[in-house]
Amino acid sequence: MNAPKPASPHILQLEEVTRHRAGRPAVSNLSLQLEAGQVLGLLGVNGAGKSTTLAMIAGALTPDSGVIRIQGNDFLEHPELARSAIGWLPEGAPLWPELTVREHLLAHGRLRGLKGANLNQACDAIIQKLELNDLQRRLAGVLSQGQRQRLGLACALLHRPALLVLDEPANALDPVQVVALRNLLRELAANGTAVILSTHQLTEVTAVCDRVAILHEGRLRHDAPLHADQHEVLEKTFFDIAMAGRAQAA
Ligand SMILES: Nc1ncnc2c1ncn2[C@@H]1O[C@H](COP(=O)(O)OP(=O)(O)OP(=O)(O)O)[C@@H](O)[C@H]1O
To answer: Is the CB of 54 under 6 A from ligand 1?
Structure first.
């Protein structure tokens, strides 16, 4: 086995990544890079390949071909190193219904190698940040959708990952929590965390992302910097790509 790679300027690198699902290409020849402090919005119509891409980045799905590196470490050669740098919120925030909010965080922390006072401090800090104080002793199985989402985010953030991978993070959040999430992502990015998030809300992308990538039928159709005043440009680019795909399919 090769030695771990020295720190790479890119937190995340995808090179020509392809993955089939149910015998069809879900992601094709995808190449992407992400640097520390960047927030990349991943857009695309239903079935475009966003969740498949994020699951591969998180190490939950293996590409059929191509390479994914996290802080320079290839998932196949250094899975532990690659995984330890990632916090992942999967679509729908899967949770154990029989565990309380705090038990979830303790379990995630232990899986990430935290213990003792460090584990308790990390849990307290993230409970504070995600406003979960009043819910600490509640079972995950009785949480509302938005509360589940916040707990999923807390689990992803607990070990302070260098790369945050968020699949539709604003889903089910109320407007107050949506703004809190925006502020949290901006704060994390300002402190050097790289974020890749998928969403169907173009306003969320213009509010927090400094780059946008658009997938269509598993292929990267757009990857460019984005400024907060470019909402209309983003809308036009997104609809041009989505509608061109429909015209071809008709
Ligand atoms: N578990 C699965 N088994 C088989 N095929 C799947 C599975 N999950 C997704 N796919 C297929 O892979 C392709 C990409 O799906 P994916 O979920 O990555 O898209 P998405 O952009 O996240 O969509 P959405 O916006 O609807 O969440 C689709 O054709 C989908 O039908």
So the answer is: no
ipTM > 0.90? Answer: yes
Closest CA to 51 of 164, 162, 165: 165
Q: Is the C-beta atom of 47 inside 6 A of ligand 1? A: yes
Domains assigned to the chain: 10-91+143-249 (3.40.50.300)
Quick: pLDDT tens for 88-138: 999 988 899 999 999 999 999 999 999 999 999 999 999 999 999 999 999
In the three-class reduction of DSSP (H, G, I as helix; E, B as strand; rest coil), residue 52 is classed as helix
- Stated as kind and residue range, the H or E segment containing 73 is strand 73-74
Q: What is the pTM of this model?
A: 0.92
Q: How many CB atoms lie within 10 A of CB 74?
A: 18
Question: Phi, psi at residue 21, to the nearest 5°?
Answer: -135, 135
CA of 229 from ligand 1 middle (Å) equals: 31
Q: Residue 45: name the closest of 190, 198, 166, 186 by CA.
A: 198
Kind of pairing, strands 24-35 and 10-21?
A: antiparallel
H helices present in the chain, as ranges: 50-57, 79-84, 101-111, 116-129, 145-157, 175-190, 202-208, 231-249
Q: What is the distance between the alpha carbons of residues 209 and 176, in angstroms, rounded to a whole number?
A: 19
